[in-house]
Amino acid sequence: MQRRDYYEILGVERGADGSTIKGAYRQLAMRYHPDRNPDDPEAEDRFKEATEAYTILSDEEQRRRYDRFGHAAFESRGAGGVSEADFGSMAEVLEGLFGDLFGRRGRRRRGRDLTYELDIEFTEAALGADKSIEIERPTPCSACEGSGAAPGATKQTCGACKGRGAVRAQRGLLGGTRPCTACRGRGEVSDTPCSDCSGLGSVRQKETLSVKIPAGVEDGATRSVSGGGEIAAGGRGDLHITLHVKPHPIFEREGADILCTVPVSFPEAVLGAELEVPTLAGKVRMKLPPGSQSGRVFRLRGKGISAYGGYGKGDQLVTVMVEIPEKVNKKQRHLIEELAQEMGTETMPQRKGFLDKLKSLFD
Ligand SMILES: [Zn+2]
Ligand SMILES: [Zn+2]
Q1: Which CATH superfamily is domain 248-324 in?
Q2: Nearest ligand to the CA atom of 147
């Protein structure tokens, strides 16, 4: 693509000084700004073109390189022109430059997004919950109305960013800007800082926010509270919450199903029993049929977790584990020995089958 000369775009002489360039750009920017020409792609192109030209020519070093090498000076970054992302960050610079020119609140940065790590109980994740969290977030200082300057203090244009409030970040050619640290993005510095906020323009304020935890969320899920972030003159950032689900002493989770293991005694497994089993909804009674093997799994339908964002409910899977006593007293030992004598292989078909196979292997 044939690219137009930056001076030609701005309609200035090659030797034009900084203020002439700024003035020319300002005229074009006002004329073609997207806010004034909604849905006009040609105006948008002209605006971007002018902005790119201005971005280069307003920077002494970039301008020198351009004067020497033309567009080739910046070709190493690949495709020519300004990408959308760059354009966004330039728009920030522009707002810093022109303030309320376009009816936007110039130099007013939106508050940053904040993050929060929230521990929740297993049952809160499974059933949903309303949590309140306390955050401490930067809020504009009321004493100085966020300016950072003491009342009546003299303000000067920030030297570090020349009043733009932003400086070029060290990536790519036009690639991005970041807020100026010298003036904290305000473009101005004052000789006497506000005593309430030590010139920061913001103070940290504690606040309680309520967060809705939907039923079925999993560990590591995130929730966002719109407007829960830093408060700045240009608007509030969002709060991004990462949920950490604490382990449960009895339950484990597999998708929408709840897993648990219930220890039972040898007599219960042999004779059958009615077991008390914990579920999310409280204790339920579960029939253990006679002759239940260790490791057998019983399914309690609908006792699981409501599938998050889906339909239906999971089940609870109860694994019974036959507990073998590790120690027995004298009387117990005697009774078990008696039981062993009494129990022939016909009561244990699996053992009988095993012994038969063993026999055929070695005989
Ligand atoms: Zn203050
Ligand atoms: Zn600055």
Answers
A1: Urease metallochaperone UreE, N-terminal domain (2.60.260.20)
A2: 1
